[in-house]
Amino acid sequence: METAILAVILFAVMIFPHELGHFLAARAVGVQVNEFAFGMGPALWKKEKNGTLYAIRLLPIGGYCAMEGEDTDPNGSSGAFVNKTAGQKFIVLAAGAFMNVVICVLLLMMVMCISGMTTTTIQKADANRPAYAAGIRAGDQITAVNHEKVSSWQSVGDEVQAAKGEAVTVTVRRDSGTETFSITPIKSQGRYLLGIEPVITRNPAKAFVQSIRTTGAAGVLIYKTFGQLITGQLGMKDLSGPVGIVSEVHKTVSYGLTYFLTFTAFISLNLAIVNLLPLPALDGGRILFLLIRKIGGKRITDSMEGSVHLVGFALLIALTILVTWHDIVRLF
Fold first, then answer.
1. What is the CATH number of the domain that holds 176?
2. This model's pTM is above 0.90
3. How far apart are CA 99 and CA 322, in angstroms?
4. Same structural domain for residues 289 and 267?
5. Which tens digits make up the pLDDT trace of 208-257?
6. Which positions are catalytic?
7. What is the dihedral of CA 282, 287, 292, 298, to 10 degrees?
8. Residues 6+ positions from 189 with CB-CB distance below 8 Å
9. pLDDT below 70 — which residues of the chain?
């Protein structure tokens, strides 16, 4: 039951903010939204206001934003999506992915505020370890290792490991000014150690900045993964669909809240990036058509573009079924 509840929360967090982004952007540029719904299936509650039907539906697994004239508009309505400028269309199309990125940043920020973040300031220097013997003390802030500037505790560790046991030059900032120490690490359990521990912070401002950096780094990694799919380094067996996601959600039950929040954040980021791929039926495919039609003029009609997206949607459904089949096979 816990897995089911978390899975519902995950899909709602993935899809509803995405559709909310489209809705808010559509209203901002004057597109008529016929219905904005939370959930799918039969309506549990609905109310019409200013020409938009707002609804809460039975299955809380996302939502949708139904805009007037998304593909064609035989009535020539000024509120139809197809009759808006290329810039206005772009804002509406990109807003969904933007919201998914925002959700990723906010969830990671929440995780960092709960778990805390390491800093480059030293909380403790073990009296029996090399750093203390060299003169490092609690309160020192590491600014460089081997004359390479460091901005995170991870980068401090990376520089120490890169030296492979050789003495490292550590520059610190302390009240008396800047000082430099030469420290020879010791090896323990396969890693080179100086014998220092970082200060842990839960500062929201720092968490916000770090969550943006982490989101950016994760986005680069996701794009690299797509590159591996294109080059054949990864295959269909490496992809996961809804069943695979639910399977991973089940693991978060034992790993705890912060793991679930982190997993949800990266799934939301995945959705943003996948949705911006230049493929028919996806927002990225629609944005690509904006560019093509801007260059090519009226040679491509609304109905022609709509037909391409319809075929693309069918292919995406087929891909989803195939990926889901692989997920089910992996389960058994």
1. 2.30.42.10
2. no
3. 28
4. yes
5. 999 999 999 999 998 888 888 777 777 666 666 666 677 777 777 778 88
6. 19
7. 90
8. none
9. 1, 235-244, 326-327, 330-332
Q: How many domains in the chain? A: 2
Which residues neighbour 26 within 8 Å (Cβ) at sequence distance 6 or greater?
A: 32, 33, 65, 67, 81, 92
Q: How high is the pLDDT of residue 236?
A: 61
Tell which of 201, 225, 249 closes a domain: 201
End position of a domain, from candidates 201, 229, 262: 201
pLDDT score for 238:
65
**108 and 242 co-located in one domain:** yes
Expressed as residue numbers, the domain containing 11 is 2-115+205-331
Which long-range contacts link 27-32 to residues 24+ away (Cβ below 8 Å)? 28/91, 29/84, 29/88, 29/91, 29/92, 30/78, 30/79, 30/84, 30/88, 31/67, 31/68, 31/79, 31/80, 31/81, 31/84, 31/88, 31/92, 32/67, 32/68, 32/69, 32/77, 32/79, 32/80
